[in-house]
Design goal:
The complex is a heterodimer of chains A (515) and B (970). With 515 residues, chain A is mainly α. Chain A has 19 helices and 8 strands. Chain A has a domain of 137 residues: Serine Threonine Protein Phosphatase 5, Tetratricopeptide repeat, CATH 1.25.40.390. In chain A, strands 1-3 form a two-stranded antiparallel sheet. Chain A has a two-stranded antiparallel ribbon with strand order 2-8. In chain A, strands 4-7 form a two-stranded antiparallel ribbon. Chain A is globular. With 970 residues, chain B is mostly beta strands. Chain B is 6% helix and 48% strand. Chain B has a 22-stranded antiparallel barrel. A 5-stranded mixed sheet of chain B has the order 10-15-16-13-14. In chain B, helix 5 runs antiparallel to helix 6. The longest helix of chain B is centred in the first third of the chain and has 16 residues. Classes of the chains: A mainly alpha (515), B mainly beta (970).
């Protein structure tokens, strides 16, 4: 019986251990990540340039940094498809499945370079706006905050309207909607901007935010392109009037004047630029996303600017476009890097892997002339994109703020709208910009001079594709790009990734006509 | 039925009375000797049990035993490899037993989940390997012990970097987005790390291949279960054994990537920089390794212990790569309370210091200009700004990349026999691991940018807790034997880490050890991140019943109900059942020349968990850019187990008294596999979400054969063959057809090379077909569909009229291992061939650097293989059929010659054996790259299982290894 008692105790203990320790709690408490319950962290990191406001909107507004000035997204789509920038295939480098060559030649297909990035980056901003607009946090629930967010969302939708046309107009988190027509997207952007204006400030905008004039500046762009967006056969004077009125709101606000030097608008320390209306506030540490040095410079130019990371030798401008500038045009000197390159000590920098066939030899000399698009584009050919100046000792991300909207463009918008109505009074506006650039006044405006002037002024500001389409010259031939007359190419195909991602959902995306 | 009922009732009563009926009548002592019928020598360690009791002992080193028995006792003698014998004692006081070895080799006891089974009883597909069968030579990773030995188990450590571990894959692709590594169970501690076991300490490894065997492990058994048993102290009478195993090994780079010599390079138009440098020579070395293992083991009838110290100083073929490691392992077991209580304690600790070196040095050694000097005359390294090409010697000399890993494991297990037939077991294990990785790029290094010194420190800490308790009930009634196990399992793991990166140092003197010197702290550029995982838990209840009828028909069933914190709140718990049936046909039907024929069939369900935590919750992350915490990832509250259902049918056989083997056929369906996928960014913030997105079906055939070819006197030759073949088909997916993979920079980004399509097998290499060179030196692709237009750009791969086709398979269709064990007197020779067939590799060195336009010859040296075509004219590097090479291979993986000294019985040594091994002795393959072993997942894409067959440029150079070793026992 002793044994029996003993066993009772032991098995009782074992049973106890099994039942008591048999925990079945499976709640997951993420210790290293924020989930639904946390105290909102919202403070402003010191931007080298300036402090963005501590208004809780940074999560949405910082999305403007994505795709605006880096490779493989909105900037690339707007630039590489146009006549102002190209990525040549440099032997073994930059073929990348032909996606950039096809982009240059307007052989668009659902996998062509950058379109999926442009789509994702735009919606990345839109869904952040949607989630903040749905938030009950008092800081972001004020009419002023909501107006900022509605402006920003409208801006991202404008990008989608311009590039893709037919997109989904989602306005609430996790609520799917059917794909809209391009006209519906146009109407939405217009109505959202108009709705936001009353609650936007009339004073000078805060850093990285907008005021009413930002909304008007975007409206002037929207109305100017209304013919394209609405699919009209000719420009509608009503739209042009609206474009002029919106531009006038900005011009007459008294808040913006042209900077004395064109250069000052684009420098690394361009925070005090007087003509910027809405900027993407890049910062090498706290506002990452501008990679022009990597994108355009040849590898050894690392030594010229003491860059931390090696450049990729991708983008340059087309020779014809470079030559559209007068030699005296201050904008040419600002916008491009050409000629022999030196290191910090003034010694020539060398490409030790130089092509023996290249007459420039190992010493690097950026020439506007490009020998060929592919397969053996010379590694040092092409004027480089230098509008946003490189800082010595720069990190991979640049400090220059990127103007999304600026007075220079608004003046050109107004001049063009007037011109399209047969009114030549916009000439003075154009000549203001030319005077600043140190070139002679134009005597008159034509479609061609206006387009060329916009090109010279707005180079590298991701507007060229939109302009070429509006001026009806999108299908024209240019260097290594054959002519076409396919109106379907006015928008890009819906990226194959997005067609796949929405397949099987309630509202699958359908491809744009012609793709 | 009535009889069964009576048995059940009777033993339920027993259960309630808890042992009241157990008698311990013990009377006289019986002594004797157990000998082998083969040669009459004593057999140590034989289990001797008084039948119907738990009273037992073990024979000593000479085979002698002594046991107290009751009246009318029957003794049961059992030992691995011998036929179990029963001897009625009667009135004898001395019983001598001659044991007959079991030729069918099917009588081993095999460790399975939560217990062990006689191999006869096993109904699933289980492979047991012991030290005899392990791979030999310079083996630093326990995984390598198994390479080629288990049909259906693919193990590849491409190149053989001593600091990397092998990719394990059991029966093909078991998952795409979740954890694909098999569950490791070390001495009963599941989820343990193989990194903490020295190969020298491993006694046996059992692989549970099919779902019916693995289902008892539930959610983590999907990719198979590897059960590792470490060596134990034998419970013998007195005596302590000392074993020393040591070897010296030399690794030499075995194959190189052929490139142009300096003169060929100049002739091809390269710029002559004045020197002649063989860069591959400059970065490789003869890696010399020293490995020493000393163990003490011994014990008494009641107590056993073993303690071992392992020291490894290993160097690889890449200069500065290698590690030093000290591992200590100790086991202690004891039987008490009239042998009712068994206690087993284990402890191990590993301390490894690694020098990881830089694999990129091997890549640049292939590509760097062969006329460039290593250093300028002033002693400074030759460095030039070239795209993605750096002086490989400078990389190794200027920079530091090292690490430390420390781990401690301990475990305790108690078994208590409450009743004669009922045992309770508690198993507790803990595992701690600390990792450190430090890198420093010096101020003058060009390698990762002009950082003026860049330091990184990464430290992580993880711990794992296991608690399990189960009861085992065993009863024989009539012709039935029932074995029931039921229990509970609790697993928890935690992880945290800190990463710091800072650059711009005033000097290089202190490397990564003085971060505060960094100028980045003045400007806020330093990067610091920290993470901590939640208490990641898995909780399970499990049960199993094994029923044997007539010792010829075996049935088992198991079920595990398991829950995980990683899944959606509604889908946290899953049920994983399994059934198995085995029939010993030869017991019932006599077939001439067939010694053994056993049919097995099993069905089991296992699961797999997503690889990340927190997927079922909304996630917000702090954004450095904004100073805000922003919504980053949408929750998937419906996330559930990835479920695998597997049916296995097998046959074990013994023929002509010489041939034994097994054949297994399996079909497995994986449903709801977990993958992070693109979702509509208009709806979901991040545009990515982890979901259950598709299903896979794998089927395969596995064959293992062992043949006693020669067994004449002192000569034996036992060849063994292992063949595995399987194919995985994508049966459903959210995306019906897509291309994946990225050939990469320079120039071939956006260039996928794998096609994934529902209804097709995984592993398809897809691309355009090379059709010659144009007059401008461009690639001309083949117009495959004959429509007159060639659409062969990567971006056009999915168009209806694209000129693309299947160029090969990334995954082998068949893998083979051929073992030969020869013995002659004191000599033993082990020859092991291994091969894989049906796979191709995309040779990315060739794909980038074989055709080079004249403008780029100076950027990179040119690859020179006999597969090159249009060498003089082709100037454009574009991925195509040209670079997809068949990579079938057979290698003499391992050849070992050993000699055992004949020792007089008076010798202080028990055994002394010398051996020498050559690994990678020879290779037959048509592949021109460095290593023809398959690439089952892209190393540049987290080993993504959908991206296969791409041989990347950073591949470590494969080594041929010569080893000289000695085993001494005293």
């Amino acid at each position: 019986m002793m044994i029996m008692k003993y066993n009772w105790k032991l098995s009782g203990l074992a049973a106890l251990v099994l039942t008591v320790v048999a925990c079945t709690d499976l709640d997951e408490d993420l210790k290293g990540d924020f989930t639904s319950n946390f105290t909102t962290v919202s403070y402003v990191r010191s931007n080298v340039n300036k402090l963005p406001p501590n208004d809780g909107l940074g999560g949405a507004f910082s999305r403007i940094l994505n795709g605006t000035a880096n490779h493989g997204s909105y900037f690339s789509v707007q630039e590489v498809s146009s006549d102002e920038a190209v990525i040549t295939q440099k032997g073994g480098d930059w073929f990348d499945g032909g996606i950039w060559l096809r982009m240059h030649r307007h052989q668009f297909d659902p996998q062509v370079g950058g379109i999926n990035g442009a789509w994702n980056d735009s919606y990345g901003g839109i869904t952040q706006c949607n989630s903040l607009l749905a938030s009950t946090d008092p800081q972001v629930s004020t009419p002023a905050a909501k107006a900022q967010l509605r402006f920003l969302r409208a801006y991202f939708y404008w990008r989608l309207l311009d590039v893709f046309g037919r997109v989904k107009l989602t306005t609430q988190p996790l609520v799917d909607v059917p794909q809209s027509t391009r006209l519906q997207v146009y109407n939405f952007v217009e109505s959202e901007l108009l709705a936001a204006i009353p609650d936007l400030p009339t004073a000078k905008e805060e850093y990285g935010r907008v005021n009413q004039y930002g909304a008007y500046a975007l409206l002037s762009r929207l109305y100017l392109n209304a013919k394209v967006y609405k699919g009209l056969s000719s420009f509608d004077n009503a739209d042009l009037d609206k474009a002029i009125d919106a531009a006038d709101e900005v011009i007459n606000s008294g808040l913006y004047t042209l900077d004395v030097n064109y250069k000052d608008v684009f420098d690394p320390d361009n925070i005090d630029a007087k003509e910027t209306i809405f900027v993407a506030p890049f910062d090498e540490l706290t506002g990452e996303g501008m990679n022009f040095a990597q994108m355009t410079l040849h590898y050894p130019s690392q030594l010229t600017f003491d860059l931390r990371d090696q450049p990729w030798n991708g983008y340059s401008t087309l020779e014809e476009f470079y030559n559209s500038y007068d030699a005296a045009d201050a904008r040419r000197a600002q916008n491009f890097i050409v000629g022999p390159q030196e290191d910090l000590n003034g010694n020539p920098i060398l490409d030790l892997a130089f092509d023996p066939a290249d007459e420039d030899g190992a010493e690097i000399n950026y020439t506007p002339k490009i020998n060929q698009l592919q397969p053996s584009g010379s590694r040092q050919a092409g004027a480089r994109l230098g509008k946003f100046n490189f800082k010595k000792g720069q990190l991979p991300n640049m400090d220059n703020d990127y103007p999304i909207l600026r007075l220079g463009e608004v003046l050109l918008n107004k001049a063009e709208a007037l011109h399209r109505k047969g009114d030549n009074s916009g000439l003075a506006l154009v000549n203001q910009l030319r005077a600043r650039a140190g070139v002679a006044n134009l005597a008159s405006l034509t479609d061609a001079t206006l387009l060329a002037e916009r090109g010279r002024e707005l180079f590298q500001e991701a507007l060229r594709r939109t302009d070429l389409i509006r001026f009806g010259v999108w299908g024209n031939a240019w260097w290594e790009k054959p002519a076409h007359s396919d109106p379907n190419k006015n928008v890009m195909p819906i990226p194959v990734e997005q067609i796949n991602a929405t397949a099987g959902s309630a509202f699958p995306l359908t491809q744009n006509p012609g793709y | 039925m009535t009889r069964l009922y009576l048995f059940v009732r009777r033993y339920l009563t027993v259960l309630f009375l808890f042992g009241a009926m157990v008698g311990f009548a013990q009377g006289r002592t019986v002594t004797g000797k157990v000998t082998s019928s083969d040669d009459g020598s004593g057999i140590p360690g034989v289990n001797i049990l008084e039948k119907g009791t738990s009273n037992g002992t073990v024979s000593d080193v000479d085979g002698n035993f002594s046991i107290s028995v009751g009246t009318d006792a029957t003794l049961v003698f059992s030992f691995v490899g011998y036929v179990t014998q029963e001897v009625a004692v009667g009135s004898q006081s001395a019983v001598n037993v001659s044991m007959v070895s079991d030729v069918t080799a099917l009588s081993e006891v095999v460790v399975v989940g939560y217990g062990s089974q006689d191999k006869k009883e096993i109904t699933g597909s289980v492979v047991a390997l012991n030290t005899e069968q392990f791979n030999r030579g310079n083996v630093n990773d326990p995984r390598q012990l198994l390479q080629g030995k288990v049909p259906g188990l693919s193990i590849y450590n491409r190149g053989g970097n001593p600091n990397s571990t092998a990719t394990f894959r059991l029966r093909g692709i078991s998952t795409i987005g979740s954890n694909s590594q098999p569950l490791i169970v070390i001495d009963g501690v599941l989820g343990a790390s193989l990194e903490n076991v020295d190969p020298n300490d491993i006694e046996s490894i059992n692989v549970l291949k099919d779902g019916s065997a693995a289902a008892i492990y539930g959610s983590r058994g999907s990719a198979g279960v590897i059960l590792v048993t470490t060596k134990r102290g034998a419970g013998k009478n007195g005596g302590t054994n000392v074993e020393y195993n040591g070897y010296v090994a030399a690794d030499r780079a075995f194959r190189r990537q052929p490139v142009m010599t300096a003169s060929e390079f100049i002739a091809a138009g390269g710029n002559d920089l004045g020197a002649v440098t063989d860069w591959q020579d400059e970065v490789t070395q003869t890696g010399v390794s020293n490995v020493h293992n000393v163990s003490l083991s011994g014990g008494t009838q009641k107590t056993g212990f073993r303690a071992a110290v392992n020291f490894r100083d290993v160097s690889g073929v890449l200069r500065k790569s290698g590690f030093d490691q000290v591992n200590v392992r100790a086991n202690f077991n004891h039987t008490a309370l009239n042998d009712k209580l068994k206690m087993d304690f284990g402890f191990s600790t590993t301390d490894r210091r690694s020098d990881f070196s830089f694999n990129e040095a091997l890549r640049y050694a292939v590509l760097f200009n062969p006329t460039a000097p290593v250093r300028f005359d002033n002693g400074e390294f030759f460095q030039a700004i070239l795209f993605d090409n750096f002086n490989p010697v400078a990389i190794l000399e200027q920079n530091i990349n090292d690490g430390k890993r420390k781990s401690i494991n301990y475990s305790a297990r108690l078994d208590y026999s409450i009743l004669e037939n009922l045992t309770l077991t508690m198993n507790y294990g803990r595992q701690f691991e600390n990792n450190f990785n430090g890198t420093y790029f010096s101020r003058n290094s060009f390698f990762v940018g002009l950082n003026r010194g860049l330091a990184r420190r990464f430290t992580s800490e993880s711990d794992f807790t296991l608690f399990e308790g189960w009861a085992t009930y065993n009863k024989e009634f009539g012709k039935f034997n029932l074995d029931v196990t039921a229990g509970y399992s609790y697993q928890q793991d935690n992880y945290e880490d800190v990463f710091i990166e800072a650059s711009r140092f005033q000097n290089d003197d202190l490397g990564y050890n003085q971060l505060e010197q960094s100028d980045d702290f003045k400007t806020g550029q330093a990067i610091i991140t920290s993470t901590q995982n939640p208490d990641n838990k898995i909780i399970a209840f499990f049960g199993r019943a094994n029923l044997t009828f007539d010792k010829g028909i075996y049935f088992n069933a198991s079920v595990r109900r398991e829950g995980s914190t990683r899944l959606g709140p509604n889908n946290q718990w899953g049920v994983f059942p399994a059934f198995g049936l085995g029939v010993d046909i030869t017991k019932y039907v006599s077939i001439p020349k067939v010694d053994q024929l056993k049919f097995r069939a099993g069905f089991g369900v296992t699961g797999s968990l997503p690889g990340q935590n927190g997927l079922a919750q909304d996630l917000y992350t702090f954004n450095r850019n904004t100073g805000n915490t922003n919504f980053a990832r949408n929750a998937n509250p419906d996330l559930k187990w990835e479920q695998k259902e597997e049916t296995n049918i097998g046959l074990d056989f013994g023929l002509f008294g010489k041939l034994t083997g097994s054949i297994d056929y399996f079909v497995r369906d994986i449903k709801d596999f977990v993958l992070e996928r693109d979702v509509d960014p208009a709806v979901f913030v991040s545009g990515r979400r982890t979901e259950n997105v598709g299903s896979l079906r794998t089927s395969g055939l596995e064959i293992a054969l062992n043949y006693s070819a020669i067994n004449v006197g002192q000569v034996t030759w036992n060849p063994g063959l292992v063949i595995g073949t399987n194919q995985t088909e994508l049966t459903s997916f959210f995306n019906n057809r897509f291309i994946t993979g990225n050939f990469g920079s320079p120039g071939q980004n956006g260039t996928p090379f794998n096609l994934v399509e529902v209804g097709q097998k995984l592993g398809t290499i897809w691309g355009p077909v090379y059709d010659g060179v144009t007059s401008e030196g461009k690639v001309r692709f083949k117009d495959l569909n004959g429509d007159g237009t060639i659409k062969a750009d990567a971006g056009q791969a999915l168009l209806a009229d694209a000129d693309f086709k299947k160029l090969g398979r990334g995954i082998p269709t068949m893998e083979l291992g051929w073992t030969n064990q020869l013995r002659f007197k004191n000599w033993d020779l082990n020859v092991f061939f291994r091969g894989a067939f049906g796979h191709s590799l995309i040779n990315s060195f060739r794909g980038f650097y074989e055709p080079i336009d004249p403008g780029a010859i100076n950027s990179y040296n040119r690859i020179k293989t006999d597969k090159a075509v249009d060498v003089e004219t082709l100037e454009e590097a574009k991925y195509s059929s040209l670079y997809v090479e068949k990579a079938d291979f057979v290698k003499l993986d391992n050849i070992t010659l050993g000699y055992r000294l004949s020792l007089p019985s008076s010798s202080v040594f028990r055994n002394v054996r010398f051996y020498t091994t050559v690994q990678n002795a020879f290779l037959i393959t048509g592949y021109t790259g460095i290593d023809p072993e398959p690439v089952l997942g892209d190393p540049e894409d987290n080993n993504n299982a959908l991206v296969t067959g791409i041989d990347r440029r950073n591949t470590y150079f494969a080594a041929r290894t010569f080893t000289l070793g000695i085993n001494v026992g005293f």
